[in-house]
Specification:
By secondary structure, the chain is of the alpha+beta class. The chain contains ten helices and 27 strands. Among the domains are: about 385-565, Peptidoglycan recognition protein-like (Lysozyme-like); about 585-705, no CATH class.
């Protein structure tokens, strides 16, 4: 069995989420996911249902497009080389100057000569060719070359915005899709990558990933071989063909729904062009006929393999549905309360998660600081589409990065539509029962929860054929063969994978070893152990360009961000901390200004005005000291050695209490009085002494009456 298949769910048919449409702001930061909106808010407007219309390409018009004018050549599409064995060429003698080539090397295929009576066999006799080739008339077999590539055009009355191609069994082909834009022009061609995941409903069902084409009612689909060679069509005489007829913008009537290529001229081993030449001429060499016929009628023996594939393809036209966005928050629902402890998406405590007491406990508790994740409920997942419960692996060993391909031209609001379209196509059209990716990230840095079951758990996805077990699949939304991922996308990918690998206790810069399972598109045979970086690309495991050239180049930076050693977004200037201002009207600010403000002995303020824990006083910190204020003491400056000694005793919580006077400098040192005594700084010894005014005076008086020497003054703790 190729894959372990999960058991069908008996409860998912009754589970439906009232969801949101197009969540917006997802901030980057932290190290673990949290939901982006408050689940306690009232239900958001319902998202309109996602619809998929399956259309067989055999039932739609076939057209022929010029490779250059249509842009197919820029997309890498070519035509097969022309087989000249099917073209009858006239014999064209080539005059060689006498003496240039030795006469013995020139083949002689002259016909027997006829000598007129009395000529004596003179070489001036006329020669008669044994046969002459005549150019075929235009339109006859061998008269010309293909005008362009065979393309299918699919349309429907209602708009759609995503397209996927499906087929049964194996297919060694690629596809390019372009959409008609609102102005009537055709957009750029986008490639459709093959989807690498098992079908729970139908293991033989194969398909491409769905590509985003924007809102449209018509698309053109060019199917080629794996090498990018398309089926040629529209063969005509190049001398009589009007080049304008191959212009894709020209008005053309679609041909029949099944394209038929010209028959191959019949040829035998002896049907070789010959000619008779005179001395000094070079005769044409004989052609070697091909042993296999060229293109023939679709479906016939020897038919074009690409055309055979096209006849079995179906196009899935996807309308992801729409919904309104809360203009106050940029997403559906209100912003989450920062004091709340939100559940991990998919966790048993998540209100949007299906009730299932058999779910395993989380591997580790989620960290307290969390980057925001848009949950399935928030992007509009119809849980009724799922046909199985999540399947959990024992461990996580690798994170595999993908791209979704398709157009890069989408808005922040349309990202949720793309996720809904991928979900419906994976779950229903391909029969995967859920979206294949575990998580998706758009170019704005928004992180979307993918496959159900919990982002902090080892949920087995359907994203990398042969290597779905023990991996987490993350898809960057867009075609990263065309453009580089945005800094916001790279940062979010790194942040999320940093958290996910931390949960699994894996090093983002380390390596992991996986064992390949059987899959047709895998680079490795079944049972083969493969060691790759912990964060790898899809192309490391499968025969694919995914995650695109630029996406793959971003992997080292993603690893650095995940390991906490890098950032894709330029650092913003550090925010200026809020501090006390000289314009403040409080007693502390006025006292600070009286000492000279920022240029005085205290220097700049480093905090705003704060309140002591017991609520009886206020204070502010400065570069060179503090100012304390209370109703009983007023505003007093504390700095230098006395401030250090007071701090060592516990500030206002010490037996001295709050300062009641500024410092006083005398001949022997500096003193400052407090509610419970005095601190004296001896300038000679550098020692701060504590003089408890009332207690010391009473004790000294009592001791004098008894004849006992007065105790030495207390020394403050060293600052």
């Amino acid at each position: 069995m190729r894959y372990r298949r999960p058991k069908p769910s008996i409860i998912l048919g009754t589970v439906a989420a009232v969801v949101v449409a197009s969540p917006l702001a997802v901030l980057i930061g932290g190290s673990a996911p949290t939901i982006a909106v408050d689940p306690s808010e009232p239900p958001a407007p319902v998202v309109s249902a996602t619809t998929i219309n399956q259309v067989s390409l055999e039932d739609v018009p076939t057209i022929v497009l010029n490779l250059i004018k249509s842009g197919l050549a820029d997309a890498g599409v070519t035509l097969p080389p022309v087989d000249v064995s099917g073209i009858d060429l006239p014999d064209i003698p080539l005059q060689i100057p006498p003496g240039l080539i030795p006469s013995g090397l020139i083949p002689s295929e002259e016909a027997p000569s006829t000598t007129a009576p009395g000529t004596g066999g003179s070489e001036s006799s006329a020669t008669t060719p044994s046969g002459t080739s005549t150019p075929p008339a235009p339109g006859q077999p061998g008269a010309g070359t293909p005008e362009g590539a065979v393309v299918k055009e699919v349309s429907q009355d209602t708009p759609f915005s995503m397209v996927g191609l499906t087929w049964e069994g194996l297919s060694n082909s690629t596809a390019h899709i372009r959409a008609k834009q609102p102005n009537g022009q055709w957009g750029p061609w986008v490639s459709a990558d093959a989807a690498h995941g098992p079908g729970n409903k139908d293991p033989l069902k194969q398909g491409t990933e769905p590509v985003w084409v924007g809102n449209t009612t018509a698309v053109q689909i060019a199917v080629t071989s794996a090498e990018g060679v398309a089926t040629p069509g529209g063969t005509a005489d190049p001398a009589t063909t009007d080049p304008a007829t191959t212009d894709p913008s020209a008005a053309q009537t679609p041909t029949s729904t099944t394209f038929t290529t010209p028959p191959v001229p019949k040829r035998t081993e002896t049907s070789i062009p010959t000619s008779t030449v005179t001395s000094g001429e070079v005769a044409p060499r004989a052609f070697t006929p091909k042993q296999e016929p060229m293109l023939t009628t679709t479906g016939a023996p020897g038919a074009d393999p690409v055309q055979q594939i096209v006849s079995s393809l179906s196009a899935a036209l996807i309308t992801p549905g729409t919904g309104s966005v809360d203009p106050a928050t940029g997403s559906v629902g209100s912003a989450q309360d920062p004091q709340a402890a939100p559940p991990i998406p998919g966790d048993a405590t998540d209100p949007a998660a299906p009730v299932n007491p058999a779910l395993p406990a989380p591997i580790l508790p989620a960290p307290s600081t969390e980057p925001q994740v848009i949950t399935r409920a928030q992007w509009g997942a119809d849980e009724g589409m799922r046909c199985s419960e999540p399947q959990y692996d024992d461990t996580l060993k690798e994170a595999i990065v993908h791209h979704t391909a398709g157009s890069n031209d989408y808005t922040r609001e349309q990202s949720a539509e793309i996720v809904r379209g991928i979900y419906a196509y994976h779950a229903q059209t391909l029969g995967w029962c859920d979206i294949g990716y575990n998580v998706l990230v758009d170019k704005y840095g928004q992180i979307f929860e993918g496959r159900a079951g919990g982002l902090d758990r080892n949920v087995q996805g359907a994203h990398t054929g042969g290597f779905n077990e023990d991996t987490v699949g993350l898809a960057m939304m867009g075609d990263l063969n065309q453009i580089a991922p945005t800094p916001e996308m790279v940062q979010s990918v790194g942040n999320f994978l940093g958290w996910r690998l931390k949960v699994a206790q894996l090093d983002p810069r380390g390596q992991g070893t996986l064992v390949s399972q059987y899959f047709d598109g895998s680079r490795y045979g079944a049972g083969e152990a493969v060691t790759m970086p912990t964060i790898s690309g899809h192309r490391d495991f499968g025969n694919t360009e995914c995650p695109g050239t630029y996406g793959y180049e971003a992997l080292p930076q993603i690893r650095d961000i995940a390991a906490g050693g890098g950032s894709a977004i330029p650092a913003a200037p550090a925010p200026v901390p809020e501090v006390l201002s000289t314009t403040d009207q409080g007693a502390i600010a006025q006292q600070w200004v009286a000492t000279g403000g920022p240029t005085g002995t205290l220097g700049n303020a480093t905090t705003v005005e704060q309140t002591t824990p017991d609520g009886t006083a206020k204070y502010a910190d400065f570069e060179n000291g503090k100012i304390y204020w209370s109703e009983a003491t007023g505003a007093q400056v504390v700095q230098g050695a006395i401030a250090k000694a007071w701090a060592a005793m516990g500030f206002e919580n010490s037996s001295l209490g709050l300062p009641t006077s500024p410092e006083t400098t005398g001949p022997e040192g500096v003193s400052q009085t407090f509610q419970g005594g005095t601190l004296f700084f001896n300038l000679i010894t550098g020692i701060v002494q504590v003089l408890r005014t009332y207690i010391d005076e009473f004790t000294n008086s009592y001791n004098e009456q008894r004849g006992t020497p007065a105790p030495a003054p207390t020394t403050a703790p060293a600052g």
